[in-house]
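Entry for flavin mononucleotide complex. Fields follow.
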Amino acid sequence: MTERLPHDLNCLTITELQKHAAVMMDKQTRDYYNEGADSGSTLQENLDAYAKYRIRPRVLRDVSKIDTSVNIFGHKNSIPLGVAPTAMQRLAHSDGELATARACKKTGIAMGLSSFATTTLEDVAEASGDNPHVLQLYLFEERDHSIKLLKRAKAAGYKAVFLTVDTPMLGRRNLEIRNQFKLPGHLTIPNFQEQGDEKPEAEAEQRGQGRARRASEAGYTDSEGKRVLPKGPITFHSHAGNPTLSWERDIEWLKKECGDEMQVWVKGIATAEDALLAVHHGVDGIVVSNHGGRQLNGALATLDALPEVAAAVQGKIPVHVDGGIRHGTDVFKALALGADFVWIGRPVLWGLAYKGQEGVELCLRLLSDEIKLAMALAGVVKVDEISKEYLVKMDKSGFIARL
Ligand SMILES: Cc1cc2nc3c(=O)[nH]c(=O)nc-3n(C[C@H](O)[C@H](O)[C@H](O)COP(=O)(O)O)c2cc1C
Ligand SMILES: O=C(O)C(=O)c1ccccc1
């Protein structure tokens, strides 16, 4: 196992990686990546929830051969963890999503690509090769944009789409507002450009659509207070949210569009009720997520939502979780509470900012190593052996309960 230990003595934990990344980013980027909505209490609780659980380790079980791998979208994944879709990775490093895709391929770890990536989905598919990659979607009121995107994803060989459902509107992020955060001029969101169209915003400006763009970047309404719909060029900040989405109309529509070629998952489930609706509407899997605490502040931590979701779903479809995962033992706890797989968001951005592809590999290797070590020390040799038998829950007064 020691031969797999990453050798960067400055960065032996994700917390250290966060610290080193912080000085590599400008304030706008650092704040955009790191902050949560409003007071940030849900962001913090996503992290703190893990400390409420303790592991019950079993011993004398021959843990000399540990298999950390799992199957996802018909592919082998080296660990039960993937890279969650996060927007605009070229803010962290000039190689952006390409660096992430290469690091994922090298380590055999699935990658989610944000539809608001700063790299085309085709380039990421090419860099990923046969390593599993999924496309995150925001469904727009104007279906043309989404139809085009889905066509491209199919053609590029994406096996699944993750429809983000916790974003009917974008959450309020105060630092982002105060910093007047916007995408620097040299970067684009090419998944919404026609292929071969280099700089649609400049053209749109010439066509007289600049006003709508400026209005939508400043908020989500135009100067008359009307919502700016994605008629003109898609820009990074105006079109992430769609308040009209519904199970009946949109999930059914998306399933039809994706056909047999791409699975449809929903990302952003936080209750048993919605998990059951997801099963009812025939989605292929769900991700328990609160968008890394960036949407509804005051929503419960994802680890706290997970048990009711897993109990409702009863294994009918896969249940994944993200939010606040920073250690191998966090992965162990999430799996013990019923998740089949976990995703990490910010740690990968920190790796990217620290050292591009090498930094992402470092991040993924640290976590791989910690997962293997957690399994060995808890006495399990296969991922599907991890169950709630291995956990206790501790309340604030120190009372310990078996699960
Ligand atoms: C900077 C940033 C950008 C994000 N962009 C997207 C996005 O475009 N689409 C999406 O579905 N989720 C997005 N997310 C949410 C992540 O997919 C994921 O749910 C979250 O980061 C997990 O929490 P963690 O950062 O604590 O690991 C973003 C998160 C961050 C931090
Ligand atoms: O920042 C986010 O959390 C996010 O999902 C997003 C994605 C694209 C544009 C704006 C926000």
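NOTE: The longest strand covers residues 263-269.
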